[in-house]
Design brief:
By secondary structure, this protein is an all-alpha fold. It has two domains: 50 residues, Arc Repressor Mutant, subunit A, CATH 1.10.10; 124 residues. It is 75% helix and 0% strand. It has nine helices and no strands.
């Protein structure tokens, strides 16, 4: 029971960190603000996260968890299709990326491990696409299209309409010369 409560507290603290970064900006991210918004004492916050950098690392770990879940889905539904579909994240996940990216670019002294976690999110998809797509250039094109879709979602830009997106996804799921991607 205590472990479940600790995990719930960690979750509230990370949710509060994300909310502050997204709604108020990195300049408003303080340990006091996170503790207050999460409804946790500052001592409770420090027990779980001793610094702003540790909070950002916790957010980066969540990104890794999103990616792992999406890779599991890709094993069943196909790497290309899953990658492209998950490149249009739901708003909560897009906000999560925004929070991490803004923290990384803000000058908060984050650890190398945090930067490595974020890099891992991108590297595992590149590796999966290269393993699943016979043409390595096409694999890179697919990754870049997905990254562009993701960046647009994180920035809150309107994506292509659904029929146009489906045409793009279908085209990229087939080699430029009509050969199926290697699944």
């Amino acid at each position: 029971m205590a472990r479940g409560k600790a995990e719930a507290t960690r979750g509230r603290l990370l949710d509060a960190t994300k909310q502050i970064l997204v709604e108020r900006g990195v300049g408003q991210l303080t340990l006091d603000a996170v503790a207050e918004l999460a409804g946790v004492s500052k001592g409770g916050l420090l027990y779980h996260f001793p610094s702003k950098a540790a909070l950002v690392e916790g957010l980066a770990e969540r990104l890794r968890d999103y990616t792992r879940a999406n890779l599991e889905r890709a094993a069943e539904a196909g790497t290309v299709r899953t990658f492209l579909e998950t490149s249009l994240p739901h708003s909560a996940e897009a906000e999560h990326y925004w929070a991490v990216f803004s923290a990384l670019r803000s000058g908060i002294d984050v650890s190398d491990e945090t930067r490595d976690l974020v890099q891992e999110v991108f590297t595992v998809w590149s590796d999966a696409l290269r393993a699943d797509v016979a043409d390595p250039v096409l694999a890179d094109i697919i990754r870049l299209v997905g990254d562009g879709l993701y960046l647009g979602a994180v920035l809150g830009l309107e994506p292509l309409d659904a029929p146009a997106l489906e045409r793009v996804f279908a085209r990229l799921d087939v080699d430029l010369h009509g050969a199926e991607t290697g699944r």
